[in-house]
Automatic annotation (TrEMBL):
Keywords in alphabetical order: Hydrolase
Name recorded for this polypeptide: Deoxyguanosinetriphosphate triphosphohydrolase-like protein
HD domain mapped to chain residues: 91-245
CDD domains (alphabetical): HDc
Keyword presence, Repeat: no
HAMAP family xref list: dGTPase_type2 (MF_01212)
Family: Belongs to the dGTPase family. Type 2 subfamily.
Source organism of this protein record: Citricoccus muralis
UniProt-annotated stretches for the region Disordered: 1-34
InterPro entries: dGTPase (IPR006261), dGTPase-like (IPR050135), dNTPase_2 (IPR023023), HD/PDEase_dom (IPR003607), HD_domain (IPR006674), PHydrolase_assoc_dom (IPR026875)
SMART domains for this protein: HDc
PANTHER family: DEOXYGUANOSINETRIPHOSPHATE TRIPHOSPHOHYDROLASE, DEOXYNUCLEOSIDE TRIPHOSPHATE TRIPHOSPHOHYDROLASE
């Protein structure tokens, strides 16, 4: 009897058809980017060999992309709270845009694009509800037990809190990323007590690893000079700066906070320059910031007035695209001028950003800060957000882990001391979205029915 069309072939025939590796003849092989070896591809918890369809770094990217921490960024504050406007960015859309910018810039410099992509997708995973405002609240609460820092929380998520692999003793290896990807995602590669000194002699408040996560940090940083970012981390850091410098301005304009034409007025211009200096460039002469703003205004894509029309939206999009290209091209050209055309990976080079470009990027950030983040009408909102998180942490810390989700309740139960138990509470609260934090506070702390909506 003739076989029916479409009937599955026996396994042996299928295997022969696809070749000795079970690979269709048209399937590609993962490309090994020059400059990376077995050391860079190693995982904290060794894993058995996988199919050869994907590289180790492609798997890293997929693990982050499918993580619950990344999904939650869709409901976490970027500049304004999610739900305030259906155009403005969330932490998730921002992370996707950073990944797009970083991937292309990194690839042009010779970095493995998936390592950079993984770092960019990961860079904001540790942000708590309400963005930097929430970060300040949790840091104040955790001051006596190691503090809270969004970047240190990112490493904690990647290497401990997210679920993918566990050691034989049952402890978590987190997503178990490769050494190169963990190093790339570590924006501030030092503990709090090892933070570099600022010009005034005080230590930076930025750090990338908590003391109880030092073991994995020491593993992937073995042999690397203190404080040195990997090449891929530098690309991620620059892509983040570039992305939010232009996108926060775009969001601020679309959400009605300001127009760029305001900067032609003496008072508004002084406000933007002073905010830029205070927030981002304390050691820079205001005249240099003024010059950077003038250069940006002189570009043909600068949108002085956006009226909400389709044409205006298109012009804003073109402005953001052109400015991203301007900043990336300047960094690419400057870096290649110093290091030539060889692949620049891991710890064999540094990203070079021309001083004028760095000031232009900071000026864009300063414009958004002047009209959105430091806006007086948002101060009561920020205070309510900090009070909300503080009240929620205090409630959860005094209810013996009863209301924690199972994973965090287990961490509470097995903690060795009060600091460990408080860290479990902080981990839980940091994981919440803006909406979830509001709901938990309303139902648990206030004992009310949550009506929905945003803060």
């Amino acid at each position: 009897m003739a076989e029916r069309s479409g009937q599955r072939q026996p396994a042996a025939v299928q295997q022969t058809l696809f070749g000795p590796e079970g690979r269709p003849p048209y399937a590609g092989r993962p490309a090994d980017t020059p400059g990376y070896g077995a050391w860079d591809r190693a995982r904290w918890l060794p894993e058995p060999p996988k199919s050869s369809y994907r590289s180790d770094f492609e798997r890293d990217r997929a693990r982050v992309l499918h993580s619950s921490a990344l999904r939650r960024l869709g409901a976490k504050t970027q500049v304004v709270s999610p739900g305030d406007d259906d155009f403005t960015r969330t932490r998730l859309t921002h992370s996707l845009e950073v990944a797009q910018v970083g991937r292309e810039l990194g690839r042009s410099l010779g970095c493995d694009p998936d390592v950079v992509d993984t770092a960019c997708l990961s860079h904001d995973l540790g942000h708590p509800p309400f963005g930097h405002n929430g970060e300040k609240a949790l840091d104040a609460i955790a001051e006596t037990m190691g503090g809270f820092e969004g970047n240190a929380q990112t490493l904690r998520l990647l290497a401990r809190l997210e679920t993918k692999k566990t050691f034989d003793d049952g402890s978590s290896a987190g997503l178990n990323l490769t050494r190169a990807s963990l190093d790339a995602a570590c924006k501030y590669p030092w503990l709090r007590e090892d933070a570099p000194l600022k010009a005034d002699g005080t230590r930076s408040k930025k750090f990338g690893v908590y003391a109880d996560d030092a073991e994995v940090f020491d593993w992937f940083r073995h042999g690397v000079s203190a404080h040195r970012q990997s090449m891929e981390a530098q690309v991620m850091d620059l892509a983040d700066d570039i992305s939010y410098s232009v996108h926060d301005v775009e969001d601020g304009i679309v959400s009605g906070h300001f127009q760029l034409q305001w900067l032609t007025g003496t008072e508004h211009r002084a406000r933007a320059i002073e905010t830029t200096r205070t927030w981002y460039l304390p050691d820079t002469d205001p005249a240099e910031i003024e010059a950077a703003l003038t250069r940006l205004e002189s570009t043909r894509v600068w949108v002085t007035d956006a009226d909400g029309s389709r044409a205006a939206r298109a012009a804003l999009k073109d402005m953001t695209s052109q400015l991203i290209g301007r900043f990336c091209t300047a960094a690419f050209d400057a870096t290649r001028e110093v290091y030539g055309n060889d692949p620049l990976t891991r710890h064999n080079a540094n990203v070079v950003v021309p001083p004028q470009t760095a000031i232009e990027i900071a000026t864009m950030k300063g414009i958004a800060a002047a009209y959105v983040m430091s806006s007086e009408d948002r101060r009561p909102l920020y205070e309510r957000q900090r009070e909300l998180l503080t009240g929620l942490v205090e409630f959860l810390a005094h209810t013996e882990g009863e209301y924690l989700e199972p994973m965090y309740a287990s961490d509470w139960k097995h903690a060795a001391d009060d600091a460990g138990r408080m860290r479990a509470v902080i981990d839980q609260v940091a994981s919440l979205t803006d909406y979830a934090a509001l709901e938990w506070h309303t139902t648990l702390v206030q004992g009310k029915r949550y009506p929905g909506g945003a803060v």
